[in-house]
């Protein structure tokens, strides 16, 4: 029996009705079979050291009575989990069998610009692209997705994304749960919205360009509220927020602790025990949850601060997946220390780069929401169906922006992205101190940089949260905040194959909040 946290009760009317609904749907779910959590198959290099990826079209049954047209990699939706070992060099061949230009980017992998799969390495429909990946970084949960400018958002919505897991000896020596799909569970969290005829909703209007994609359906590995049967014991969850724009505040339904063991680029020094974990788009965290009692629990997302991300069903605790740790006994456990992270230097280098995230058309996206009563509703803490209907109408029916307007809606350091223009150059193999901030918009921007794993030195002048103190490739800023980072680029990125730095809200990225640089 899945328990709902006491916190639910404290969240007031909306949450209470949410809970009634949840119980009803749960009762219903117990009659009809729940979907099981799809586990992406592991894919290692073959005897020749090659991995073949095929981006293709497909269909999926997300809704009871309709097929949805999708994209996927080696399957109809999402992709396999690539499994690479530190020290190996693999050849990846990506074939494009979808009817639009794509690229394939290895998010978090420390490789030269020419292998990075950024917006310059275009694969036309029917063509393929081959590159070498020489793996030289600590064990981590990374991911891959297309990066074609300016339609990354729509390609990810359709299903192009997958996990890329780096293994190494140090991590392999730890007693962590590591049996794939048994006690080591990948969890790609996304939100989607569907059109009346069951297709993915996707429209680049002023609301989307400003606030990002707002789904009304949560998916875990492409399934709606699935359940996973796991070993009885410590369960490792490798969580990727693979959404376009939505942040999740993760928690366990019965309030048991989440032990964060790894961030974007690898293991933390020691586990960080939390009751709630905020994860922004592009970020990954590995968590351990204690399932030794064998009792089922839900991973739940709680409401976040962004107004538009609090529309139902995200206005109360929303269960994403049920974990039933009632299988054979697990063998993994939670070590007290995990990895040795280099200490940050006492004397930091001077700030050599400032990246300011800009929004040029945010008023056009915010004012209609205000007029529809959204901020007032969120303030009141009560979900008002009339307001929700008005806001959903804006999300769905506000006309798409002309492309020229889309591309000039956002920027970095005052300028929208231009694929023709290299914005700066960074020194190779040096510790660099960068400052990431935002203009006057006060919105959330999870800023991601290619070609590196960095450390966040401080956030808003204070030490960064413990769960973000390890290796990172995505640094969130919000509410006028600043993240200072210490970053190093071991590889070259030339004018023809530069690295990107951008907001990982894909609608911001596709509307100009991206900059490119050489190393
Ligand atoms: Cu996850 Cu530049 O991307
Ligand atoms: Cu990336
Ligand atoms: Cu942004």
Summary of the model, kept short:
The protein has 519 residues and is an alpha+beta fold. Helix content is 15%, strand content 34%. The chain has helices at residues 7-10, 13-31, 152-158, 169-173, 206-211, 362-371, 374-380, 385-397, 403-407, 506-509; strands at residues 42-43, 50-60, 68-73, 81-85, 89-97, 105-107, 128-134, 140-145, 162-167, 184-192, 217-220, 227-229, 233-241, 248-252, 258-263, 266-274, 277-279, 284-291, 297-302, 318-324, 351-359, 410-412, 424-425, 432-438, 445-449, 455-459, 474-477, 482-487, 499-503, 514-518.
Word description of this protein:
With 519 residues, the protein is an alpha+beta fold. It has 10 helices and 30 strands. The strands form 6 sheets. A 6-stranded mixed beta sheet has the order 11-10-13-18-15-16, with no helix packed on it. The relative contact order is 0.15. Bound molecules: CU-O-CU linkage (C2O) and copper (II) ion (2 copies). CU-O-CU linkage binds next to strand 6 and strand 29. The site of one copper (II) ion has 4 residues, from strand 6.
